[in-house]
Design brief:
The chain has a single domain, classed as OB fold (Dihydrolipoamide Acetyltransferase, E2P) (Beta Barrel), CATH 2.40.50. The chain is α+β, with helices and mostly antiparallel strands. It has two helices and seven strands; from the N terminus they run αβββαββββ. The longest helix is centred in the first third of the chain and has 21 residues. A seven-stranded mixed sheet has the order 5-3-2-1-4-6-7, with no helix packed on it. Helix content is 21%, strand content 33%.
């Protein structure tokens, strides 16, 4: 009976862990496509578990769309050398990312280049083991 209880508990714990793994899925982004946009930083949400860089991009018809670019949390961004103040509101940038599959103005943040000094910001560099 004791072995049965241990196995049952292990199964329950394994089932509870499945939703946690799904949190980090990037299935909503189309990794076979990449967008490159130039715009002005509206806001840098330097938050856990994921940071968002909101960028106002002018459309061809003159309207402005706010794009959201998802990145890692602050600890990973810091290891990549990206600080909260590096991309302040009003900063002109060019940014590349994998777009949202459903057409919403959102993408992963792959590389951002600050136009004033051509400095590159790569959030994934924070995963590199040195």
């Amino acid at each position: 009976m004791r072995n049965f209880m241990i196995v049952a508990l292990a199964i329950v714990l394994a089932l509870l862990a499945i939703p946690g793994n799904a949190h980090h899925s990037a299935a909503m982004f189309d990794t076979s496509k990449e967008v490159t946009l130039t715009g002005v930083v509206r806001e840098f949400q330097y938050t856990n578990p994921h940071s968002w860089l909101l960028v106002d991009v002018k459309n061809t018809d003159g309207t402005v769309a706010t794009w959201g670019f998802e990145a890692e949390g602050p600890s990973t961004l810091l290891r990549a050398g990206i600080h909260r103040g590096d991309l302040a509101p009003g900063t002109l940038i060019t940014i590349k990312g994998n777009p949202h599959r459903d057409g919403r103005p959102a993408a992963t943040w792959n590389i951002a280049i600050r136009q004033s000094d051509n400095k590159e910001f790569n959030p994934r560099a924070g995963f590199i083991v040195r």
